[in-house]
Amino acid sequence: MDKGFLIDMDGVIYSGNDLIPGADTFIKTLQDRGIPFLFMTNNSQRSPIDVVNKLRPMGIHIKEDNVYTSAMATAWFLGFTKPNGTAYVLGEGGLLSSLHENGYSLVTQDPDYVVVGEGRNFTLEMANNAVDMILGGAKLIATNLDPSPKKIGWSNLGIKAIVKMIEEATGRKAFSVGKPSPVMMRAARKKLGLTTDQTIVIGDTMDTDILGSIQMGYKTILTLSGVSKQEEIGTYAFGPDMVIDSLKDFNIDEALEKLSVENNVAEF
């Protein structure tokens, strides 16, 4: 096994509920050639089976083992840091199940951690409860700090906005586990069984996918089918190894040849 891929989803594979052209063919090629890959998403609402079911109508057929979410990374991190702990959760589905699977009890008082993930069902009262718990000694954890897309009609404030509100009310900073945190970037690589110099990340966002990957020493491919645009790349102090318009334009053999040069970084 020479190389493998960690692949972002929204903006790379699909936009909303629409497949980005070429994404299905790309994934099928990886499967046919036995090239290892893992979908790596900051969305903590969905469980792996939710992701499988979302992709199936788009013509992409994967297994749950092909999915790694920020909820899974968060639950693993908490289980490693404080086994069999307790958490008060502002979040849904995928986050709740991941915490249970890692031995965590979900409580409504005196938790070890307050964990914030994506969701539409928690209330201001729940946020107030979280503030009291944090002031009482609970640690604040965010599954990620993705911002709102700032679009009219968007029904989700964005997890970053919720976390900032709680940080302001408590004077405590959240520890974020999702991309670009090295916690998730490293855990995803190890789940796939890759070394640092075997890992290629495909993402659409300079501030998460590309930044986190560069910090870990991974090779990077930025696709312009999502958040970051060509004219923005030069404003960053770092840059991707490759830029493509979309996966429709992606030639795997050319990419593997170009990215086969040693990373010249130490193994993390």
How many whole angstroms does the radius of gyration measure? 19 Å
Alpha carbon gap, first and last residue = 19 Å
Low-confidence stretches: 262-268
Q: SSE order, as H and E?
A: EEEHEHEHEHEEHEHEHEHEHEH
Percent helix range: 25-40%
Tell me the number of strands.
Answer: 13
Largest sheet: 6 strands, parallel
- Number of helical stretches of at least 4 residues: 10
Query: What is the percentage of strand-forming residues?
Result: 15-25%
What does this structure look like?
- This protein has 268 residues and is of the alpha/beta class.
- 36% of the residues lie in helices and 17% in strands.
- Strands 5-4-1-11-12-13 form a 6-stranded parallel beta sheet, with helices on both faces. It has a 5-stranded parallel beta sheet with strand order 7-6-8-9-10, sandwiched between helices. A two-stranded antiparallel sheet has the order 2-3.
- α3 packs across α7 and α5 packs across α6.
- The C terminus is likely disordered.
List its salient traits.
disordered C terminus; 5-stranded parallel beta sheet; 268 residues; 10 helices; 17% strand; 36% helix; alpha/beta
Detail the topology: elements first, then pairings:
Blueprint: E1 4-7, E2 14-15, E3 18-19, H1 23-33, E4 37-41, H2 48-55, E5 67-69, H3 70-81, E6 86-90, H4 93-101, E7 105-106, E8 113-116, H5 124-135, E9 139-142, H6 159-170, E10 175-176, H7 182-192, E11 199-203, H8 206-216, E12 219-223, H9 230-233, E13 242-244, H10 252-258
Helix pairs in contact: 3-4, 3-7, 5-6
